């Protein structure tokens, strides 16, 4: 069985008419995502400002309890909407007829895991300086860190958001731009879009993760490796921040 049975088949890509439609849909989708994110940030800031003016004491609790998870949930919803617009996914990714082997899937998962661990180790200096104590304590309170709310947020931030984000930024944005702009320009654009919207860990970590995931996707032609890289960075980064808070 050919090793490229799992990868995206660039040679069997869409027609020129389909390419043009895909690019137009990509532009409208990304503008909608970016505009929605900015509008949400503005509305949330306005709400918190008014809340603070009317009741300064409760505004602090509102920021601690809602701001960080609400942003992550909003970004996830946006990613899911974009994925829904691109259904069915098989036609977008041009999955080849030959069935992928379990060995190849495992190999891609291991490559993504190794890349994610490398990015995490390189990002530790940035995570040390990252002021996330209030955000993480709102999600994982020291008194009850393993409650239902904490478990729900852990699944949201550590699994659902990374998977949806990689499908959108690598499987849709990068995949659509590469035939038009070439690998380097497509990687640059998709990485900068990722950094401008991604709600976790700050600019330095998002930039490192976005660049690594884009390079992985371009190299491996598979979504499995960047998905695993994103999940590993997110989970390891979250545990590292919590360890620093609780130690």
Which terms summarize this structure?
mainly alpha; 247 residues
Individual helix count: 8
Order of helices and strands: HHHHHHHH
Helical proportion?
Answer: over 70%
Low-confidence stretches: 1-21
Q: What is the total tally of β strands?
A: 0
Gross morphology = globular
Major sheet summary line = none
Termini, distance in Å? 50 Å
- Average pLDDT taken over every residue: 76
What percentage of amino acids are in beta strands?
under 5%
Our Rg estimate from Cα atoms comes to 19 Å
Count of folded domains: 1
Label the structural class. Answer: mainly alpha
Concise structural overview:
With 247 residues, the protein is mainly alpha-helical. 81% of the residues lie in helices and 0% in strands.
